[in-house]
Specification:
Strand content: under 5%
Largest sheet: none
Helix content: 55-70%
Shape: elongated
Number of strands: 0
Distance between the termini: 41 Å
Oligomer: single chain
C-alpha cells in the first residue's frame, strides 16, 4: 500500500468532515421543519429527510388538515399513527442518525452506514411520491431529490476517503498540522 502525502491525508479528512456535515445539515433541516410543522401547521418540507416527514404527516394530530396532502395519503395514512408512536418512531430515527453523525467523525467507515440509511430515505422519497405518499408528484419533489442525491454524493466521497485514510490519521485534521509549528530554542 502506498504512503499518502500530508496533502492527500488532509483531503481525505476534509472529505470525511464534509460528508458528515452534509448529512448533519439534512438532520438539522428535518428538525427545523418538524418544529415549523408542529408550531405553525406548515407541512412544506424541503431539504429534509423523508422518513420523519411521513411519520409526522401520518400522526394523529394531522387528521384535521384536509387538502394539505394527496387524496391517496389522506384516505389511507393521514391521522392513522398515534402521537405516541410518532414520537417513538421519530426518537429512534433521530437517535440513530445523530449517533452515526457523532461516531462517523472518529470512525469514518460508519459513513457507509449513513450512506445506506440516506439511500433508503432517497428511494422511499421517490417511490413514496409516485405512490402519492404524502403529497404525490409535485414540482417541489425535484428539489428534494436533488438535495438527497447531493448528500449521497458527499457521503459516497466521504466513505471512499474513510476507507483510503489510514486508521492512525482519522482524527481531526488540525492535529496533523505539525509542519506549521515552529520550535523556539533557548
Amino acid at each position: 500500500m502506498q504512503q499518502l502525502t500530508t496533502k492527500q491525508i488532509k483531503k481525505h479528512q476534509t472529505n470525511i468532515k464534509s460528508a458528515v456535515g452534509a448529512f448533519g445539515m439534512s438532520l438539522i433541516m428535518t428538525l427545523v421543519y418538524l418544529v415549523k410543522a408542529l408550531l405553525g401547521q406548515n407541512f412544506n418540507f424541503y431539504f429534509s429527510n423523508y422518513i420523519p416527514e411521513v411519520l409526522l404527516k401520518s400522526a394523529s394530530f394531522t387528521r384535521g388538515y384536509s387538502g394539505v396532502f394527496s387524496a391517496v395519503f389522506t384516505e389511507n395514512w393521514q391521522g392513522k399513527l398515534p402521537i405516541v408512536w410518532f414520537c417513538v418512531g421519530f426518537a429512534v430515527y433521530a437517535g440513530v442518525c445523530v449517533a452515526l453523525v457523532v461516531l462517523a467523525g472518529r470512525h469514518p467507515p460508519l459513513i457507509w452506514a449513513i450512506f445506506a440509511l440516506h439511500l433508503c430515505d432517497t428511494v422511499l422519497l421517490v417511490l413514496g411520491r409516485f405512490w402519492g405518499i404524502p403529497n404525490g408528484v409535485e414540482e417541489t419533489m425535484l428539489i428534494d431529490v436533488i438535495f438527497h442525491v447531493l448528500v449521497l454524493l458527499f457521503l459516497f466521497v466521504g466513505g471512499v476517503s474513510g476507507v483510503k485514510l489510514p486508521k492512525d490519521k482519522r482524527g481531526d485534521p488540525r492535529e496533523d498540522m505539525t509542519d506549521f509549528i515552529v520550535k523556539v530554542e533557548d
